[in-house]
Design brief:
The structure holds two protein chains of two kinds. By secondary structure, chain A is of the alpha/beta class. Chain A has eleven helices and twelve strands. Chain A is globular. The relative contact order of chain A is 0.14. By secondary structure, chain B is mostly helical. Chain B has twelve helices and two strands, in the order αααααααααααββα. In chain B, helix 1 packs across helix 5, helix 2 runs parallel beside helix 4 and helix 6 runs antiparallel to helix 9. The longest helix of chain B has about 35 residues. Classes of the chains: A alpha/beta, B mainly alpha.
Chain lengths: ~325, ~325
């Protein structure tokens, strides 16, 4: 009974403190629309979720959320968030670009932010783009210097310039570490279903392993789960993407290319709360800590000190501009193949 | 010698992996259609089987329990199809389509509600999947010219469900052509009145045919999510049920011919994953989009050019009115 009372008292105190805190920020009401992968996709959306969670934990402010389960819901969900009084709405992924463009145009008083988009133009819309080619370059170096067979592979999700940029950065890094490296590349499909086809991802991985690859990098959302699993099944190595995926098959995931969408999500919410929200395009690369690679207890044994030093050296050179990593999206071509 | 034929063997190996769910579904389709019931719900049953197998395996910690649950789920869907079309004489295509939509929606909704991963179930560890079995003597025979790689790479090293799929074909043929049940089943799809006159229940025979098909679909579904894959993903059946149905028609409602069609579809799919990004003589590297469309384009061409005149069971699609 006593503990119950104590718990109840704490709960009441928290509610009072929480509401007082929320009140101090006027009518600030944030919202986030997760995309088709789902909030716990172990990849892109989950990374956003981690950023949002950090914001909520620090400020005590609840963020309204919605998980899109089919394409038609995106615009609907955004409009509903605005109706419910959201003052800032975060869209996750380029798939929501058209929806957010329309809704932002209709609601000039509400702030909007979107990740993986940089081609829209609305005065109340902030856009985050990442220099994925820079992060991919680094994991490409790791792949090529780790590979024993001299062949490394890439499995992409949907065949779009964004994913080609991952592949192209990776191949440039691999060639930089080993000029003779043999490169394989596959795309899962040409429709959004390609983000969620682990069986096909696994099959593509097996075919690359059959052709000699021993390290395979994936940028394929949910499909990548199949790549990691197939590589682990065959005793080969894979490279994770977006979130730190090293834990998904410890000892088989060589490293992960980190895309700090959590930082983008956190900054959106924080800036909006503090009244510092500005529209425009943010391009986050190595210099801004927007991309990187993962080293933790799961892959520490795989990464030698030499590899680590070489990668850190290359990262410094990319930041200083001494190494220019070509962005596939600039001219839709890749200098290596 | 063995080095040279290896890429070919490995492509055939992938063919077997990709054709297995098609074989199981095609045999399910043959049972249903030979009894006179159109079964386009193969796709929905395959998808539900995959979901239930992954979800129950996750929850129970046993892949066998998952397989059993998948078979029960798909047999229930078959019974539902039967209830609508046999007992209540509903339209067989409409009922099948309804089951497909039900499966597609329900797996995503339930998956979202329970796991919150965009319709995926949690990834399964290796001890919770059907893992590859190495056949007897396969390591020893590996270096024998020609036959060695065929045995150790192509035939050995698959999971149990692949072998089950391979066995399902002669088993279906045996049941259809060598047993009393099979004779009656074929008769009920051709002239149900004759079977009824002989004092055998048309309804009960058709129900049994459908439920047998449901069982096979359950195995195929489990193959997708707990053997080939390590978890369920939304719409993971990706039209395989329809392709299996095409194989049934392509195979003229006969088990071994349908097997041939399934292997052809599997081969085309494995070829498309292997040829992507490879320099071919004369034409160079083919674009991704073309490679991905290849199995479907060839399917249309082959179906249009080689099938000839199909002879479906005479009473197919007609509800039996006593």
């Amino acid at each position: 009974m006593k503990t119950f009372l104590l718990a109840a008292a704490t709960a009441v105190a928290t509610v009072i403190a929480g509401s007082a805190f929320a009140a101090s920020h006027g009518n600030f009401k944030p919202a986030v629309i997760y995309d088709m992968g789902g909030k716990f996709d172990k990849s892109f959306n989950e990374s956003v979720y981690n950023g949002i969670k950090r914001f909520s934990d620090e400020t005590g402010i609840e963020v309204m959320e919605f998980e899109v389960t089919n394409e038609a819901q995106r615009e609907q969900a955004m409009r509903r968030m605005v109706q419910r009084g959201a003052t800032v709405v975060l869209g996750v992924g380029f798939g929501q670009a058209d929806a957010i463009n329309a809704v932002a145009g209709d609601n000039p008083d509400v702030n909007f932010s979107i990740i993986d988009v940089n081609w829209l133009n609305q005065p109340n819309l902030r856009q985050y783009a990442f220099k994925e080619h820079e992060g991919s370059y680094l994991v490409g170096m790791i792949a090529a210097s780790f590979s024993k067979s001299g062949t490394v592979g890439f499995v992409g999700g949907m065949d779009i310039p964004l994913i080609r940029a991952f592949e192209c950065g990776y191949q440039q890094g691999a060639r930089a570490a080993n000029a003779d490296i043999n490169l394989l590349g596959n795309m899962t499909g040409t429709t959004p279903a390609a983000w969620n086809d682990p069986a096909k991802g696994a099959e593509l991985t097996r075919s690359q392993i059959d052709r000699g690859a021993d390290v395979i990098y994936q940028a394929a959302g949910g499909t990548g789960v199949g790549v990691i699993q197939a590589a682990a099944d065959a005793g080969k190595y894979s490279i994770g993407v977006d979130s730190n995926q090293n834990h998904m098959a410890p000892g088989s995931v060589l490293t992960s290319m980190l895309k700090r969408v959590d930082v983008a999500a956190y900054n959106t919410m924080k800036d909006a709360m503090e009244g510092n929200f500005d529209a425009g395009v943010y391009n986050l690369g190595l210099a801004e800590n927007g991309v990187g690679w993962a080293l933790d207890e799961n892959n520490a044994a795989l990464i030698s000190d030499e590899m680590k030093a070489a990668v850190e050296d290359a990262a410094a050179k990319i930041i200083s501009g001494e190494i220019m990593v070509h962005d596939y999206r600039a001219d839709n071509t890749c200098p290596v193949s | 010698m063995n080095e040279m034929i290896m890429p070919f063997i490995l492509t055939l190996d992938a063919t077997l992996r990709l054709a297995s769910p098609l074989m199981l579904c095609a045999m399910a389709g043959i049972f249903a259609e030979r009894s006179g019931i159109v079964d386009i719900s193969l796709e929905g049953k395959l998808l539900s089987g995959a979901f239930v197998a992954a979800a129950v395996t996750t929850a129970s910690g046993s892949v066998w329990v998952g397989l059993g649950a998948a078979m029960i789920a798909t047999m229930s869907l078959s019974a539902l199809h039967g209830f609508a079309t046999i007992t209540h004489r509903g339209d067989q295509v409409v009922s099948g389509l309804a089951i497909n939509m039900l499966a597609m929606g329900l797996t995503i909704v339930v998956g979202h509600a329970v796991y919150g991963r965009g319709g995926q179930t949690p990834a399964l560890t290796n001890d919770l999947r059907f893992s590859p079995n190495t056949l007897w003597l396969s390591d020893m025979l590996k270096d024998v010219p020609l036959l060695g790689p065929i045995y150790s790479e192509l035939l050995s090293g698959h999971n149990l469900l692949v072998y089950l799929a391979l066995i399902s074909v002669p088993a279906t043929a045996f049941i259809l052509y060598r047993t009393r049940f099979g004779l009656r089943l074929r008769a009920v799809g051709e002239v149900p009145e004759a079977v009824d006159t002989a004092g055998i229940s048309v309804f009960w025979l058709r129900y049994r045919a459908l439920i047998l098909g449901g069982l096979l679909c359950g195995i195929a579904g489990a193959y997708l999510s707990v053997a080939l894959g390590a978890g369920f993903a939304r719409e993971m059946s990706a039209g395989k049920g329809y392709i299996a149905l095409a194989a049934v028609i392509f195979g003229n409602w006969r088990p071994f011919r349908a097997l041939g069609a399934c292997l052809m579809f599997g081969f085309l799919e494995s070829l498309s994953t292997r040829l992507e990004g490879v320099e071919l003589p004369l034409v160079g590297e083919l674009p991704t989009q073309l490679m991905l469309a290849l199995p479907y384009v060839l399917t249309v061409l082959l179906l249009a050019g080689f099938i000839g005149r199909p002879t479906p069971p005479a009473a197919i699609g007609q509800p039996y009115i006593k």
